[in-house]
Amino acid sequence: MDFSWTEEQEIWRRTVRDFAKKKIKPKVRDIDTNKKIPEELVKDMAKLGLLAPVVSKEYGGADVNWTMACIAAEELGRADISLAVPVLYLVEAAWGHIFNRYGTLEAKEKYLPQVTSGNAFLGIAVTEPTGGSDIVGAAKTRAKKREHRWVLNGEKLFISGISESKKWGGIHLTLARTDKSAGHKGFSFFAVPLKENPKIKTTLLEDMGRMGISTGGFAMDNVELSDQYLIGELNKGFYYAMEGFSAARVLIGATCIGAAEAALEMGIDHIKTRDAFGRKLGSFEGIQFPLAEHYTNIESVKLLTYKAAWIMDNVHKKNKYNHSDVALAAAMTKLRAPIRAFEAMNEVADWLGATGYTKEHSVEMGIRGVRSYSIGAEGTMNIMRIIIARGLLGKDFLPYRQ
Hints:
Layout: H1 7-24, H2 28-34, H3 39-48, H4 66-79, H5 84-102, H6 105-116, E1 121-125, H7 135-138, E2 142-146, E3 149-160, H8 162-168, E4 170-177, E5 187-192, E6 200-205, E7 215-225, E8 230-231, H9 237-273, E9 275-276, E10 279-280, H10 285-318, H11 323-352, H12 363-375, H13 381-393
Parallel strand pairs: 1-4
Antiparallel strand pairs: 2-3, 3-7, 4-5, 5-8, 6-7, 9-10
Protein backbone atom coordinates (compact mmCIF):
# COMPACT_ATOMS: atom_id res chain seq x y z
CA MET A 1 0.00 0.00 0.00
CA ASP A 2 1.46 3.31 -1.14
CA PHE A 3 -0.29 6.65 -0.72
CA SER A 4 2.37 8.69 -2.52
CA TRP A 5 2.01 10.17 -6.00
CA THR A 6 4.16 9.07 -8.91
CA GLU A 7 6.41 11.60 -10.63
CA GLU A 8 4.06 11.61 -13.62
CA GLN A 9 1.08 12.36 -11.39
CA GLU A 10 2.93 15.15 -9.59
CA ILE A 11 3.90 16.76 -12.89
CA TRP A 12 0.33 16.46 -14.18
CA ARG A 13 -1.06 18.06 -11.02
CA ARG A 14 1.38 20.96 -11.21
CA THR A 15 0.65 21.46 -14.88
CA VAL A 16 -3.12 21.55 -14.43
CA ARG A 17 -2.87 23.66 -11.27
CA ASP A 18 -0.67 26.24 -12.94
CA PHE A 19 -2.94 26.37 -15.97
CA ALA A 20 -6.09 26.65 -13.86
CA LYS A 21 -4.60 29.32 -11.61
CA LYS A 22 -3.54 31.41 -14.59
CA LYS A 23 -6.34 30.82 -17.09
CA ILE A 24 -9.45 29.87 -15.08
CA LYS A 25 -9.38 31.38 -11.60
CA PRO A 26 -9.27 35.05 -12.73
CA LYS A 27 -12.34 34.46 -14.91
CA VAL A 28 -14.57 32.61 -12.44
CA ARG A 29 -16.67 35.56 -11.32
CA ASP A 30 -17.19 36.67 -14.93
CA ILE A 31 -18.14 33.10 -15.89
CA ASP A 32 -20.72 33.03 -13.11
CA THR A 33 -22.08 36.50 -13.92
CA ASN A 34 -22.13 36.16 -17.70
CA LYS A 35 -23.36 32.55 -17.54
CA LYS A 36 -20.86 31.39 -20.11
CA ILE A 37 -17.46 29.73 -20.24
CA PRO A 38 -15.37 31.75 -22.72
CA GLU A 39 -14.67 29.89 -25.95
CA GLU A 40 -11.00 30.80 -25.79
CA LEU A 41 -10.79 29.11 -22.38
CA VAL A 42 -12.40 25.97 -23.79
CA LYS A 43 -9.84 25.95 -26.59
CA ASP A 44 -7.01 26.42 -24.08
CA MET A 45 -8.33 23.45 -22.10
CA ALA A 46 -8.33 21.42 -25.30
CA LYS A 47 -4.69 22.26 -25.97
CA LEU A 48 -3.76 20.91 -22.53
CA GLY A 49 -5.79 17.73 -23.05
CA LEU A 50 -8.50 18.62 -20.54
CA LEU A 51 -11.49 17.91 -22.78
CA ALA A 52 -12.54 14.25 -22.60
CA PRO A 53 -8.98 13.36 -21.47
CA VAL A 54 -9.75 9.63 -21.06
CA VAL A 55 -10.54 9.33 -24.78
CA SER A 56 -8.05 7.49 -27.00
CA LYS A 57 -5.21 9.49 -28.55
CA GLU A 58 -6.37 8.55 -32.04
CA TYR A 59 -9.38 10.82 -31.47
CA GLY A 60 -7.39 13.62 -29.87
CA GLY A 61 -7.76 12.51 -26.24
CA ALA A 62 -4.94 12.22 -23.72
CA ASP A 63 -5.76 8.58 -22.90
CA VAL A 64 -5.20 9.19 -19.18
CA ASN A 65 -6.38 6.77 -16.51
CA TRP A 66 -9.01 7.61 -13.91
CA THR A 67 -6.53 8.59 -11.21
CA MET A 68 -5.05 11.18 -13.54
CA ALA A 69 -8.54 12.28 -14.57
CA CYS A 70 -9.41 12.83 -10.89
CA ILE A 71 -6.25 14.84 -10.30
CA ALA A 72 -7.29 17.20 -13.10
CA ALA A 73 -10.86 17.37 -11.77
CA GLU A 74 -9.58 18.26 -8.31
CA GLU A 75 -7.41 21.07 -9.63
CA LEU A 76 -10.22 22.46 -11.80
CA GLY A 77 -12.50 22.45 -8.75
CA ARG A 78 -9.84 24.26 -6.77
CA ALA A 79 -9.62 27.02 -9.41
CA ASP A 80 -13.32 27.30 -10.28
CA ILE A 81 -15.16 27.06 -6.99
CA SER A 82 -18.43 27.80 -8.84
CA LEU A 83 -17.93 24.35 -10.43
CA ALA A 84 -19.04 25.37 -13.94
CA VAL A 85 -15.76 24.48 -15.64
CA PRO A 86 -15.48 21.25 -13.60
CA VAL A 87 -18.99 20.25 -14.76
CA LEU A 88 -17.97 20.76 -18.39
CA TYR A 89 -14.87 18.70 -17.70
CA LEU A 90 -16.45 15.78 -15.86
CA VAL A 91 -19.45 15.41 -18.18
CA GLU A 92 -17.24 15.16 -21.23
CA ALA A 93 -14.72 12.92 -19.46
CA ALA A 94 -17.24 10.39 -18.11
CA TRP A 95 -19.46 10.20 -21.17
CA GLY A 96 -16.60 10.63 -23.62
CA HIS A 97 -15.25 7.43 -22.08
CA ILE A 98 -18.54 5.62 -22.75
CA PHE A 99 -18.74 6.91 -26.31
CA ASN A 100 -15.09 6.06 -26.95
CA ARG A 101 -15.63 2.57 -25.56
CA TYR A 102 -18.94 1.65 -27.18
CA GLY A 103 -19.66 4.07 -30.02
CA THR A 104 -19.48 3.06 -33.66
CA LEU A 105 -16.31 3.81 -35.59
CA GLU A 106 -18.16 6.17 -37.92
CA ALA A 107 -19.71 8.21 -35.10
CA LYS A 108 -16.48 8.37 -33.10
CA GLU A 109 -14.49 9.57 -36.09
CA LYS A 110 -17.12 12.23 -36.74
CA TYR A 111 -17.55 13.60 -33.23
CA LEU A 112 -14.73 12.72 -30.83
CA PRO A 113 -11.98 14.81 -32.52
CA GLN A 114 -14.40 17.74 -32.44
CA VAL A 115 -15.07 17.20 -28.73
CA THR A 116 -11.43 16.85 -27.69
CA SER A 117 -10.50 19.97 -29.68
CA GLY A 118 -13.22 22.07 -28.04
CA ASN A 119 -15.32 22.43 -31.19
CA ALA A 120 -18.24 20.25 -30.06
CA PHE A 121 -19.98 19.25 -26.85
CA LEU A 122 -20.62 15.73 -25.60
CA GLY A 123 -23.29 15.30 -22.94
CA ILE A 124 -25.66 12.82 -21.30
CA ALA A 125 -29.48 12.75 -21.52
CA VAL A 126 -31.22 10.27 -19.23
CA THR A 127 -33.50 12.27 -16.91
CA GLU A 128 -37.05 13.01 -18.06
CA PRO A 129 -39.79 15.40 -16.84
CA THR A 130 -41.66 12.52 -15.18
CA GLY A 131 -38.70 11.19 -13.23
CA GLY A 132 -34.99 10.86 -12.80
CA SER A 133 -34.03 8.25 -10.24
CA ASP A 134 -36.69 5.78 -11.40
CA ILE A 135 -35.25 5.38 -14.88
CA VAL A 136 -36.89 2.04 -15.60
CA GLY A 137 -40.37 2.95 -14.42
CA ALA A 138 -40.56 6.61 -15.45
CA ALA A 139 -38.76 6.72 -18.81
CA LYS A 140 -41.11 7.41 -21.71
CA THR A 141 -38.63 8.13 -24.50
CA ARG A 142 -38.96 5.48 -27.22
CA ALA A 143 -36.85 4.40 -30.17
CA LYS A 144 -38.37 2.23 -32.89
CA LYS A 145 -36.75 0.77 -35.97
CA ARG A 146 -38.47 1.73 -39.21
CA GLU A 147 -36.84 0.15 -42.22
CA HIS A 148 -33.19 1.18 -41.89
CA ARG A 149 -33.65 4.12 -39.49
CA TRP A 150 -34.24 4.56 -35.79
CA VAL A 151 -37.06 6.96 -34.90
CA LEU A 152 -36.88 8.59 -31.46
CA ASN A 153 -39.70 10.31 -29.61
CA GLY A 154 -39.67 11.67 -26.08
CA GLU A 155 -38.34 14.41 -23.84
CA LYS A 156 -35.27 14.82 -21.66
CA LEU A 157 -34.94 17.44 -18.92
CA PHE A 158 -32.38 18.74 -16.40
CA ILE A 159 -29.61 18.11 -18.93
CA SER A 160 -26.24 19.90 -18.93
CA GLY A 161 -24.85 21.57 -22.03
CA ILE A 162 -27.98 22.34 -24.03
CA SER A 163 -26.80 25.78 -25.19
CA GLU A 164 -23.28 24.51 -25.79
CA SER A 165 -24.50 21.62 -27.92
CA LYS A 166 -26.86 23.86 -29.89
CA LYS A 167 -24.10 26.36 -30.61
CA TRP A 168 -21.01 24.20 -30.93
CA GLY A 169 -22.59 21.03 -32.23
CA GLY A 170 -21.91 17.61 -30.83
CA ILE A 171 -24.06 14.89 -29.31
CA HIS A 172 -25.94 13.89 -26.19
CA LEU A 173 -25.86 10.21 -25.27
CA THR A 174 -29.58 9.61 -24.97
CA LEU A 175 -31.30 6.69 -23.28
CA ALA A 176 -34.41 5.37 -25.04
CA ARG A 177 -36.64 2.36 -24.53
CA THR A 178 -36.34 -0.12 -27.40
CA ASP A 179 -38.15 -3.06 -25.81
CA LYS A 180 -40.98 -2.03 -23.47
CA SER A 181 -41.45 -5.57 -22.16
CA ALA A 182 -37.86 -6.09 -21.00
CA GLY A 183 -37.55 -3.71 -18.03
CA HIS A 184 -34.03 -2.38 -17.57
CA LYS A 185 -32.86 -4.76 -20.30
CA GLY A 186 -34.99 -2.94 -22.84
CA PHE A 187 -33.06 0.35 -23.13
CA SER A 188 -30.58 1.44 -25.77
CA PHE A 189 -28.19 4.37 -26.01
CA PHE A 190 -28.15 6.75 -28.97
CA ALA A 191 -25.85 9.64 -29.90
CA VAL A 192 -28.32 12.45 -30.62
CA PRO A 193 -27.11 15.67 -32.32
CA LEU A 194 -29.04 18.77 -31.21
CA LYS A 195 -27.60 21.43 -33.51
CA GLU A 196 -29.69 22.41 -36.54
CA ASN A 197 -32.09 19.54 -35.99
CA PRO A 198 -35.62 20.73 -36.87
CA LYS A 199 -37.18 17.73 -35.13
CA ILE A 200 -35.68 18.69 -31.77
CA LYS A 201 -37.03 21.51 -29.62
CA THR A 202 -34.81 22.68 -26.78
CA THR A 203 -35.62 24.53 -23.58
CA LEU A 204 -33.40 26.23 -21.00
CA LEU A 205 -33.63 26.38 -17.22
CA GLU A 206 -31.77 28.71 -14.85
CA ASP A 207 -29.92 26.91 -12.09
CA MET A 208 -29.05 28.47 -8.75
CA GLY A 209 -25.36 27.76 -9.28
CA ARG A 210 -22.60 26.61 -11.67
CA MET A 211 -23.95 29.32 -13.97
CA GLY A 212 -21.27 29.02 -16.63
CA ILE A 213 -22.72 25.88 -18.16
CA SER A 214 -26.30 25.68 -19.36
CA THR A 215 -29.05 23.38 -18.11
CA GLY A 216 -32.28 22.54 -19.90
CA GLY A 217 -33.88 19.84 -21.95
CA PHE A 218 -34.95 18.77 -25.40
CA ALA A 219 -38.00 17.14 -26.94
CA MET A 220 -37.69 14.77 -29.89
CA ASP A 221 -40.45 14.48 -32.48
CA ASN A 222 -39.72 11.61 -34.85
CA VAL A 223 -35.96 12.18 -34.82
CA GLU A 224 -34.40 9.79 -37.34
CA LEU A 225 -30.98 8.26 -36.81
CA SER A 226 -29.01 5.64 -38.69
CA ASP A 227 -27.42 2.61 -37.03
CA GLN A 228 -24.12 4.44 -36.68
CA TYR A 229 -25.72 6.51 -33.89
CA LEU A 230 -26.60 3.44 -31.83
CA ILE A 231 -24.06 3.12 -29.01
CA GLY A 232 -22.93 -0.41 -28.26
CA GLU A 233 -25.33 -3.32 -28.39
CA LEU A 234 -29.07 -3.03 -28.72
CA ASN A 235 -30.87 -3.13 -25.35
CA LYS A 236 -27.63 -2.66 -23.37
CA GLY A 237 -28.07 1.08 -22.87
CA PHE A 238 -29.02 0.86 -19.20
CA TYR A 239 -25.71 -0.86 -18.40
CA TYR A 240 -23.71 1.73 -20.34
CA ALA A 241 -25.54 4.49 -18.49
CA MET A 242 -24.74 2.97 -15.12
CA GLU A 243 -21.07 2.62 -16.08
CA GLY A 244 -20.98 6.27 -17.11
CA PHE A 245 -22.70 7.41 -13.93
CA SER A 246 -20.10 5.63 -11.80
CA ALA A 247 -17.30 7.39 -13.66
CA ALA A 248 -19.02 10.75 -13.30
CA ARG A 249 -19.60 10.22 -9.57
CA VAL A 250 -15.92 9.64 -8.94
CA LEU A 251 -15.02 12.80 -10.86
CA ILE A 252 -17.65 14.70 -8.87
CA GLY A 253 -15.86 13.56 -5.72
CA ALA A 254 -12.61 14.99 -7.04
CA THR A 255 -14.12 18.34 -8.01
CA CYS A 256 -15.72 18.62 -4.57
CA ILE A 257 -12.35 17.98 -2.94
CA GLY A 258 -10.69 20.75 -4.90
CA ALA A 259 -13.45 23.28 -4.29
CA ALA A 260 -13.67 22.45 -0.58
CA GLU A 261 -9.92 22.70 -0.11
CA ALA A 262 -9.94 26.07 -1.87
CA ALA A 263 -12.69 27.29 0.45
CA LEU A 264 -10.85 26.08 3.55
CA GLU A 265 -7.67 27.80 2.37
CA MET A 266 -9.64 31.05 1.99
CA GLY A 267 -11.09 30.55 5.45
CA ILE A 268 -7.71 29.83 7.02
CA ASP A 269 -6.25 33.00 5.49
CA HIS A 270 -9.14 34.95 7.01
CA ILE A 271 -9.05 33.53 10.54
CA LYS A 272 -5.27 33.96 10.73
CA THR A 273 -5.49 37.66 9.95
CA ARG A 274 -8.89 38.80 11.29
CA ASP A 275 -8.83 40.35 14.79
CA ALA A 276 -11.67 39.87 17.27
CA PHE A 277 -11.66 40.65 21.01
CA GLY A 278 -7.94 41.34 20.93
CA ARG A 279 -6.95 38.05 19.30
CA LYS A 280 -6.91 36.44 15.88
CA LEU A 281 -10.10 34.54 15.03
CA GLY A 282 -8.07 31.37 14.61
CA SER A 283 -7.12 31.49 18.29
CA PHE A 284 -10.63 30.56 19.41
CA GLU A 285 -11.60 26.92 19.84
CA GLY A 286 -15.01 27.69 18.36
CA ILE A 287 -13.16 28.28 15.08
CA GLN A 288 -10.33 25.75 15.45
CA PHE A 289 -12.52 22.74 16.21
CA PRO A 290 -14.79 23.08 13.16
CA LEU A 291 -11.67 23.64 11.03
CA ALA A 292 -10.19 20.39 12.31
CA GLU A 293 -13.45 18.53 11.60
CA HIS A 294 -13.87 19.87 8.07
CA TYR A 295 -10.24 19.28 7.13
CA THR A 296 -10.49 15.69 8.35
CA ASN A 297 -13.78 15.17 6.52
CA ILE A 298 -12.30 16.36 3.22
CA GLU A 299 -9.25 14.16 3.70
CA SER A 300 -11.52 11.15 4.22
CA VAL A 301 -13.44 12.00 1.04
CA LYS A 302 -10.14 12.26 -0.79
CA LEU A 303 -9.25 8.73 0.27
CA LEU A 304 -12.65 7.43 -0.85
CA THR A 305 -12.36 9.22 -4.19
CA TYR A 306 -8.89 8.11 -5.14
CA LYS A 307 -9.58 4.57 -3.98
CA ALA A 308 -12.58 4.53 -6.32
CA ALA A 309 -10.40 5.86 -9.16
CA TRP A 310 -7.79 3.19 -8.40
CA ILE A 311 -10.47 0.49 -8.54
CA MET A 312 -11.64 1.82 -11.90
CA ASP A 313 -8.09 1.75 -13.22
CA ASN A 314 -7.74 -1.85 -12.14
CA VAL A 315 -11.05 -2.86 -13.73
CA HIS A 316 -10.05 -1.60 -17.14
CA LYS A 317 -6.34 -2.45 -16.99
CA LYS A 318 -6.05 -5.63 -14.96
CA ASN A 319 -9.61 -7.00 -14.71
CA LYS A 320 -9.04 -7.19 -10.97
CA TYR A 321 -12.42 -5.76 -10.00
CA ASN A 322 -15.87 -5.77 -11.59
CA HIS A 323 -18.43 -3.06 -12.26
CA SER A 324 -20.27 -3.79 -9.04
CA ASP A 325 -17.10 -2.90 -7.14
CA VAL A 326 -16.85 0.33 -9.13
CA ALA A 327 -20.51 1.20 -8.51
CA LEU A 328 -20.11 0.68 -4.76
CA ALA A 329 -16.94 2.78 -4.50
CA ALA A 330 -18.36 5.53 -6.71
CA ALA A 331 -21.61 5.68 -4.71
CA MET A 332 -19.72 6.05 -1.43
CA THR A 333 -17.70 8.88 -2.95
CA LYS A 334 -20.80 10.64 -4.26
CA LEU A 335 -22.63 10.15 -0.95
CA ARG A 336 -19.96 11.93 1.05
CA ALA A 337 -18.15 14.42 -1.21
CA PRO A 338 -20.91 16.97 -1.96
CA ILE A 339 -22.15 17.01 1.63
CA ARG A 340 -18.70 17.44 3.16
CA ALA A 341 -17.78 20.12 0.62
CA PHE A 342 -21.01 22.05 1.26
CA GLU A 343 -20.50 21.86 5.03
CA ALA A 344 -16.95 23.17 4.73
CA MET A 345 -17.98 26.05 2.45
CA ASN A 346 -20.89 26.94 4.69
CA GLU A 347 -18.57 27.03 7.71
CA VAL A 348 -16.14 29.31 5.91
CA ALA A 349 -19.02 31.66 5.07
CA ASP A 350 -19.77 31.83 8.81
CA TRP A 351 -16.16 32.73 9.56
CA LEU A 352 -16.28 35.51 6.98
CA GLY A 353 -19.34 37.04 8.58
CA ALA A 354 -21.23 39.59 6.50
CA THR A 355 -18.66 39.36 3.70
CA GLY A 356 -19.53 35.70 3.25
CA TYR A 357 -23.07 36.67 2.32
CA THR A 358 -21.97 39.01 -0.45
CA LYS A 359 -20.61 38.47 -3.93
CA GLU A 360 -17.45 40.24 -2.86
CA HIS A 361 -16.25 36.80 -1.80
CA SER A 362 -16.29 33.71 -4.01
CA VAL A 363 -17.43 31.24 -1.36
CA GLU A 364 -21.07 31.94 -2.21
CA MET A 365 -20.44 30.60 -5.73
CA GLY A 366 -19.15 27.40 -4.22
CA ILE A 367 -22.14 26.99 -1.93
CA ARG A 368 -24.51 27.41 -4.88
CA GLY A 369 -22.51 25.21 -7.19
CA VAL A 370 -21.77 22.23 -4.96
CA ARG A 371 -25.39 22.00 -3.87
CA SER A 372 -26.31 20.59 -7.29
CA TYR A 373 -24.28 17.47 -6.60
CA SER A 374 -26.27 16.53 -3.51
CA ILE A 375 -29.67 17.44 -4.94
CA GLY A 376 -29.50 15.12 -7.90
CA ALA A 377 -26.67 15.49 -10.41
CA GLU A 378 -25.57 11.95 -11.32
CA GLY A 379 -27.99 10.51 -8.75
CA THR A 380 -29.60 11.62 -5.50
CA MET A 381 -28.18 10.86 -2.06
CA ASN A 382 -30.82 8.20 -1.42
CA ILE A 383 -29.95 6.48 -4.69
CA MET A 384 -26.34 6.35 -3.51
CA ARG A 385 -27.53 4.73 -0.28
CA ILE A 386 -29.54 2.16 -2.23
CA ILE A 387 -26.50 1.29 -4.36
CA ILE A 388 -24.32 0.89 -1.27
CA ALA A 389 -26.92 -1.24 0.52
CA ARG A 390 -27.32 -3.36 -2.62
CA GLY A 391 -23.59 -3.98 -2.61
CA LEU A 392 -23.73 -5.07 1.03
CA LEU A 393 -26.98 -7.06 1.08
CA GLY A 394 -27.46 -8.21 -2.49
CA LYS A 395 -30.07 -7.45 -5.15
CA ASP A 396 -32.79 -9.45 -3.37
CA PHE A 397 -33.04 -6.62 -0.83
CA LEU A 398 -33.63 -3.82 -3.32
CA PRO A 399 -36.68 -1.83 -2.12
CA TYR A 400 -38.17 -1.66 -5.62
CA ARG A 401 -37.60 -5.31 -6.50
CA GLN A 402 -40.80 -7.18 -7.32
